[in-house]
Here is the input.
Amino acid sequence: MTTAPVPESRIYRHLKCGGDTTVSGDSFEFASNPFSNMSHTWCATCNGFFRVAEYEWSDTREKITDYYARHGSRATPFQRFVCSRSIGIIGMIIGLVLGLVTGNFLFLNQAQGTRILLTLFAGFVGIMICVMSQTELRKLIARRVCGVSDSRMLT
Ligand SMILES: [Zn+2]
Here is the structure.
């Protein structure tokens, strides 16, 4: 583990228009993690989202997809499986179902309209909890696989 400071932002270039976009904060953490399964990202010049394959890091001129492949390649098949898109979707469905079931019982004594609304809200909370846990899990795996305390330190 290195003790170098975590960079706050990084710039990527959209190959089609040549425009640079600075990514920082949570978005940077998400974009820098090879296990995030990021499929599309923002271009400030085009004002739109495009496939990650259309971008490179401006400083290293490495395509972001190559960067993901390079840093992700050391993961075991199990780590890759845990971070996969399909597991992410299954996790969200489980979160939704658990939230709906919990909400349904929790608000049993409410009037029907209120109960439906609260139950839907509980389902939404279930999804959010699962998405957040998956994000944390992916950060944890990135730290273990890549040997850095934060994926933003990867170049
Ligand atoms: Zn662009």
